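look at this:
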Amino acid sequence: MAIGVFFFNSLGKSTPEGVDADAITLRSVTLSGDDYEVVTIEEELYELPIDSTPAHEITEGSRDFLSRNRDELWLTSDTVERLGVEGLDVIGGEAE
């Protein structure tokens, strides 16, 4: 008789190193004037002022993230390049 065991770690980290563990996964990030426009995977739209929203470039993972209190962004290197944003703190190694 074979017995299989399935273990689910509900406390496991699903965000890259340096990103808040409870951060919200984003579907898209665009620029609109002086704002970041971000859409969550739940289709919620937020406009965040570029000049007062800390943003960081992450080198791990393929998703962008928004902090739970909606005042900080973590953007992938691909997103940073696509948006043409410069001067962000790099988390997780060297930027490409």
About this structure: Residues 4-12 have pLDDT under 50 and may be disordered. The helical segments are 77-83. The first strand starts at residue 24 and ends at 32. The two ends are 52 Å apart (CA to CA).
